[in-house]
Amino acid sequence: MTITRRASQCRQPAWERSAVDPAQVSVVLPTFNEAGNIVPLMRGILEALGPRVEIIVVDDDSPDGTSDLAREFAGSHSQVRLITRKGEKGLTTAIARGIAESGREVVVWMDCDLSMPPAVIPDLLAALEGRDMTLGSRYARGGLDQGHGWLGRTLSRTICYGARTLLGGTVLDLTSGFMAARRPLLLELGLKGDYGEYCIELIHRAQRRGYLLAEVPYVCAPRHSGESKTSVGLSGFLRRGPGYLATVGALFLGRLRGSASCRRA
Ligand SMILES: Nc1nc2c(ncn2[C@@H]2O[C@H](COP(=O)(O)OP(=O)(O)O)[C@@H](O)[C@H]2O)c(=O)[nH]1
Ligand SMILES: [Mg+2]
Hints:
Bound molecules: guanosine-5'-diphosphate, magnesium ion
Number of helices: 8
Oligomer: single chain
Order of helices and strands: EHEHEHEHEEHEHHEEH
CATH architecture: Alpha-Beta Complex
Number of domains: 1
Distance between the termini: 32 Å
Strand order of the largest sheet: 3-2-1-4-7-5-8
Shape: globular
Structural class: alpha/beta
Mean pLDDT: 91
CATH class: Alpha Beta
């Protein structure tokens, strides 16, 4: 199911659109070399959600000084917590660490390159009403990917189409990475995988367990500053692609085994 924003809702302060009180929300920001983005991103989140939201930055000791900038911002914004991991690296474990550190009912996470607009977070939270997880979606009606070139878009769409065909479900943007989820779902399912494939796995397992999901369209913008860690072209696909394909293959086999044992029972 896709949620679209109604024009009348846009006149309210952003966080009043939310079905979830921002005091119950942590936004987890996984960063590696995001010095040019982290402060404007945190400002955008506070503007969208108001002062009661919690922001947890999980930085892997970025050499560009991302942690220093986040620490300085946290000095004047008590909502912001910084975790600097030393000797540990990886997107999925960084998000998982942020989730583990949050004591709040709802956790949101997103990329920190300003490709995902903080102004969409209230829509993700509004769509959580009666649901367990909502996803920012480039591929739902009203969404768009302006952040990647032709090759990156084609590879991403191909992965999402192939995964949906093999695994079922209704979600169009299976590698979204811009998500809001309720604590019970996160505690039950956790995050597995190395990079964006955690997203395919989490969405698949959530749908199989009967959790309710919705996609919220957003326009993915080009990275504001710094460099992509995947360079979503052919070289990025060759580096990350096998992980995605292995995850989809393993989930597909699990699904086949599951339906075979159901038929036998
Ligand atoms: N903590 C942490 N964050 C990471 C790591 N790799 C990527 N990220 C963050 O993950 C998000 C997505 O990375 P990005 O470079 O934009 O990848 P792309 O969107 O696939 O091009 C950004 O917020 C990155 O800073 C990592 O090893 N550790
Ligand atoms: Mg990015």
